[in-house]
Amino acid sequence: MVFALSIAMLAWSQSAKAQSAPSSSGDSANNKQTQARVPTGVILVKGAWSSEWPGASDSVTPVPEAGSVANNVFRDPYFGITYPLPSGWTEKYKGPPPSDTGRYVLAEIGPAGTLKGSARGSILITAQDLFFTPVPAANALQLINYEKDNLQSDYKVERPPAETKIAGRSFTFFTYWSPVAQLHWYVLATQMRCHAVQIVLTSRDTKLLESLIHDMNNMKLPTEATAGTGAGDFPVCVKDYARDENMIAKVDPVFAERRFNPVPVRIIIDKEGNVKHIHFLSAFPGQAKAITDALGQWKFKPYLQHGHPVEVETGIMFGRPPSGTTPGG
Questions:
Q1: CA-to-CA distance for 133 and 137, rounded, in angstroms?
Q2: Are residues 273 and 161 in the same domain?
């Protein structure tokens, strides 16, 4: 299962490197860490590190990485996803923290050890923050086309990207496989809250993969979150909104010590133009505090939609941007 997960992530990581080579979390590599036993059921990724501070300014507003499996149902309140798992399948591993380029592993699901007669396979649910992605993609379709065009030579495209409907929502669907490993990948991607959410199905058994796609029609996906247009409990998603022309007051964060790492931050701005929620994808505790103190003094012009003020979600890159990206979100 770990092998399948590693292969599933390999194509994306290789393609991202073709565009740029994002650095790891600043100078955290210079901080000597004591040796510790790896917790059971946790995937560790080189360059990712757990925060020692809360990753968000409050514990009420959902964040993308807070999805979980309970009673055989995967739920992610941030995206509004409700996904009943296939019968006999369960969450296998917890994903790493989000990367400084906005890459999330939301869930890794596989057959339970007690499931008899099942072909091996996995379901990997990921999200790519389109504010901070290092690849040239502004939406889910462009991201899928980039991944397809940058597959390693030993992977072969089986079906080119095409639109399909899952649970009443439009997805981009394409498949590829490895002749050497005899593994097939079925990739489905859709855009939600300025993220490209991907569901990657992996197995040697194509009949199993077709069955898993059929089961995905039991998902519930809110239409309000599509492309970040905003409605109900979802804010409008606006890239690069933290520009001077949209601001009334701004205070730069003051860092107690110099760190040479990117600090991607997502914020939600309320109807009055105040920052009501801060979500750090990757930061040192001191950086998080300094940025939180500064953002508490920021004031935006209210964002109007159809003549009425609405909440806005946007991204800001503090510190040094990863190679290949531009400051701001």
A1: 8
A2: no
**Residue at a domain's end among 223, 257, 274:** 223
In order of 22, 45, 184, 255, the CA distances from 118 in angstroms are 39, 29, 16, 54
> Which DSSP letter does residue 17 get?
H
Q: State residue 29's pLDDT score.
A: 36
Report the first-to-last Cα separation within the chain, whole angstroms: 35
- Quick: pLDDT tens for 108-144: 999 987 555 556 899 999 999 999 999 999 999 999 9
Residue 325 domain flag:
no
Instruction: Please indicate, yes or no, whether residues 273 and 218 belong to a single structural domain of this protein.
Output: no
DSSP 3-state assignment of 88? coil
Phi, psi of 26 (to 5 degrees): 60, -135
What is the residue whose two structure tokens read 């003051």?
254
* Closest to 292 measured CA to CA, from 93, 51, 88: 51
The amino acid present at 289, given as its one-letter code, is: K
Do residues 292 and 315 both lie within one domain? yes
Reduced to 3 states (helix: H, G, I; strand: E, B; else coil), residue 140 is helix
Torsion angle of C-alpha atoms 316, 318, 323, 325, degrees rounded to 10? 20
Q: What is the CATH number of the domain that holds 77?
A: 3.40.1000.10
Tokens describing residue 202: 């992996």
Q: How far is CA 119 from the centre of its chain?
A: 28
pTM of the shown model: 0.80
Burial class (CB in 10 A: 0-12, 13-18, 19+), 249: exposed
Tokens of 208: 């199993």
